[in-house]
Design a protein that fits this description.
Blueprint lengths: L1 E2 L2 E2 L13 H10 L8 H14 L3 E5 L2 H11 L7 E5 L4 H8 L4 E5 L21 E7 L8 H10 L3 E5 L7 E2 L2 E2 L6 E5 L12 E5 L5 H8 L5 H5 L19 H12 L1 H18 L1 H5 L12 E2 L6 E3 L3 H13 L15 H6 L1 E2 L4 H9 E3 L8 H16 L1
Parallel strand pairs: 4-5, 4-6, 5-14, 6-7, 7-10
Antiparallel strand pairs: 1-2, 3-11, 8-9, 8-12, 10-11, 13-15
């Protein structure tokens, strides 16, 4: 893999192919429909609904579009507020800014890096319409407390489960606990379709509106089911359907998803066990996963002492052929965040984590030998 002119022995990510993707894509072509909502779209949506228990799943061409659909379905509009963490990807917030809403950032927990459920209530105002949780690294937020607060204040609970497909909180799949959820099948995720995502509807009253928004604001799905004799524009919406080629690729991944998740969890566990001595020596801090959560092996990261140590470690690993990365630039400190959003409190944990977190290579085909090499390189760095 080449990156900025340098060749790495171990990339940060490498998209995995199960071996059936091209076969299914050829089959999709033979069926004579490449536009969305065909045979493979229905297969994928049916698989998701059956295996994780959501009332309705609709494939989208990205997780961003699923988030945008969430904003439309929530009827969130100008000046409405939605509470969320600042430590997240940009479209968690921008999808609602597009509707004229105001994201309100609160700090994250120091252990899971998820939204701090104890800070949500003080951020609620008469303009608050929803709470957006982000299940960072496939580790669930404290959903019981969050749903309790939401019920008390009559707020929607929305899940950004982009990183959390097939992870669980208290036995329930993430993405099936709130009213509406968005998941990602981007090439950096566990289960992929290049670009792609899905919106999950868990509140019955949003099922039919979701189909309308998904189909450009029309009642086309009713027409296809024979429920109306013609279809027409009935509400706002857009073109959120992926092509059948994307869906065919994705179905091959879904069929092997349990195997993929098992492998990624094993890689995660190897890192975790082998870094314990470095944690005890005070060089780094490992991820913390609460007992009630079952992660999906999406990310393995370490916390370092400060940004200077992280910068030196990234460079050290780079010279040894290993690509490591960090994220996020907190949204509250971004130019657009300052313009369109507001935040409550000092967000000290968010600010610290953004300067000290480092993600290590984790992908299905990384070999045990390569994992050992990454581990040894971190040990060598701290010995110096």
């Amino acid at each position: 893999m080449r990156y900025k002119g340098l060749e790495y022995k171990i990339p940060f990510n490498k998209p995995y192919l199960t071996g059936r993707e091209l076969r299914y894509m050829r089959h999709a072509h033979s069926l004579g429909q490449l536009a969305g909502n065909g045979y493979y779209t229905q297969k994928c949506q049916g698989w998701i609904e059956k295996n994780i228990g959501t009332k309705k799943s609709l494939l989208t061409h990205s997780c961003t579009s699923a988030l945008e659909m969430s904003a439309i379905l929530s009827r969130i509009g100008p000046k409405d507020e939605i509470i969320m963490p600042s430590f997240t990807f940009v479209t968690t917030a921008s999808s609602f800014v597009l509707r004229g809403a105001v994201p309100v950032f609160v700090d994250i927990r120091a252990d899971t890096l998820n939204i701090n459920e104890d800070l949500i209530e003080e951020a609620i105002t008469p303009k608050t319409r929803a709470i957006m949780v982000v299940h960072y690294a496939g580790v669930g937020c404290e959903m019981d407390k969050i749903k309790e607060v939401a019920k008390k204040h009559n707020l929607l609970v929305l899940e950004d489960a982009a990183q959390a497909f097939l992870a669980k909180y208290k036995g329930k799949y993430l993405g099936t606990i709130g009213d509406i959820a968005a998941i990602s099948f981007h090439e950096t995720k566990n289960i992929i379709s290049g670009e792609g995502g899905a919106i999950l509807i868990n509140n019955e009253k949003y099922v039919e509106p979701a189909e309308i928004v998904w189909e450009k604001g029309t009642n086309r799905n009713k027409f296809l089911r024979g429920e109306v004799d013609k279809y027409t524009l009935v509400d706002i919406g857009s073109s959120y359907l992926p092509s059948e080629m994307v869906a065919a690729f994705l179905f091959a991944q879904l069929e092997k998803s349990r195997k993929i998740i098992r492998r990624r969890r094993k890689i995660w566990s190897t890192y975790h066990e082998r870094f314990l001595p470095l944690e005890k020596a005070g060089y780094l801090r490992r991820p913390i996963v609460p007992q009630e959560c079952k992660h999906n092996g999406h990310i393995y990261y370490v916390h370092l002492k400060n940004i200077a140590v992280r910068t030196k470690l990234i460079d050290f690993l780079k010279r040894r052929g290993i690509l490591s990365v960090f994220h996020y630039i907190p949204l509250h400190s971004s130019p657009a965040g300052k313009k369109y959003c507001r935040f409550i409190g000092r967000l000290n944990v968010t600010n610290k984590v953004s300067n000290t977190l480092l993600r290590l290579p984790l992908f299905y085909e990384i070999t045990n030998k390569e994992i050992e090499y990454v581990i040894q390189c971190l040990k060598d760095f701290f010995k110096k």
